[in-house]
Amino acid sequence: MTVTAFAALHRAGEPLLLPCAWDHASALALAGQGFHAVGTTSLGVAAAAGLPDGASATRDETLRLALTLGSAPFLLSVDAEDGFSDDPDEVGEFARELAAVGAVGINLEDALGPADRHAAKIAAVRAAAPGLFVNARTDTYWSGDGDPAETVRRLEVYREAGADGVFVPGLTDPARIAALAAHFDVPLNVLYSPAGPTLAHLADLGVRRVSLGSLLYRRALGAALEAATGIRAGRSPDGPTPTYDEVRTPDGP
């Protein structure tokens, strides 16, 4: 399994659906369901460690998870927040460490900071880990005002810096998605939203990667709460439940 194989999964008309894991068990369970590539969710990693997400606080935890998963039988892409530093060289070194343990992709978010600084991080990653698939994320829709022109401006800067793909979480408008997909010569990644277009519709719009982000982690928490409160109320939990041995086995369910 190579970086080239990961890039090849970003197909027009058949986008890569990237589920995001938060630990070894969740990653192996997803791979066991036929997902050839698995990402990580920064929220899940941070929450499991009792640390804030998006605050550059989980560098060690993220690298530790990558070390655990990098040799597993699937392609691993790591959510590295903003690279855990404003220093491009430090971000490049982190990317090199990820590649060394077997990761094939990295997701870097700009957090609406200066576009030139984010571009410098992307360039540093390309230099330090040339084979790593760099997914450059802008937060113009996630935490900004969703300005289409600013979105394109930022993504063009990141593409020029060497990004292999561009990511716009929070964007759900079909017309704007289609316009972005047509504008760029690299794969467009969007974040799946239960209230947004379906996977099939996103494929028709030209999207080549659909990430699940923290959705699975939050759904898992919801299922745990539903089971616990249901048992307290005298109800038996329903839905699929992996057995103890399935989770205990290193190869996963």
UniProtKB/TrEMBL annotation:
Protein keywords: Lyase
Query: Listed GO molecular functions?
Result: lyase activity
Q: What's the protein called, per UniProt?
A: Isocitrate lyase/phosphoenolpyruvate mutase family protein
- The domain of life for this entry's organism is Bacteria
Region of interest (Disordered), ranges: 232-253
Which SUPFAM superfamilies would you find in this protein's record? Phosphoenolpyruvate/pyruvate domain
Organism of origin: Streptomyces tendae
State the signal peptide span. Answer: none
Pfam families recorded: PEP_mutase
